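Exercise 7. Predict the structure of Protein disulfide-isomerase 5-4 from Stylosanthes scabra.
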Amino acid sequence: MISASKLKSVDFYRKIPRDLTEASLSGAGLSIIAAFCMMFLFGMELNNYLTVSTSTSVIVDQSTDGDFLRMDFNISFPALSCEFASVDVKDVLGTNRLNITKTVRKFSIDSSLRSTGAEFHSGPVANAVRHDDEVEEESVEGSFPLTEQNFDKYVHQFPLTIINFYVPWCSWCQRLKPSWERAAKIMRERYDPEMDGRILVTKVDCTREGDLCRRKHIQGYPSIRIFRKGTDL
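Solution. The predicted structure, encoded as tokens:
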């Protein structure tokens, strides 16, 4: 039989005798100081954990056009025409990028912010018309004819109505007619009166609508009047 004293001799975790663990004032002071240090360090770590820090850095952007950040926005301008709406970009380094509209979709809207037509595609107007252009081909009827019966209806319906008061026998009216009809056709294709509803280019034959021309005080031909919401004042 192995005695108990021999078993105790292989104890790796021997205890200090009780008489060697006697408390002292110096030990108490060191314990208090250590406790305060631990509490201070814990408070500093907790404060650092709860503190929000903001850092600013400048990085040179070497990305290509396809790597730019995509931004989605929806802005309505009821009184601004689509062809004048553009987007410019300026970064923090002062680099300007003007008219970034390749991926911007634009639609015409009314005063109630409802879409009034198909998507607007910007670009130069083909076959721009000048008043002194000589047109050899037969002109296409592009302007809308107004009469005594429908005059007030249309000039009040459209915010902008452009009217050519003419007579067929006038040489100046004949010279104006090809360019006028071509311009009216372009405006009708670009601003569809049924879908867009902003502008209408028309004409009035004063030999047929004499009373209407006299009521509008037409004294020379051709006379071009611009009516805004029913009035040309």
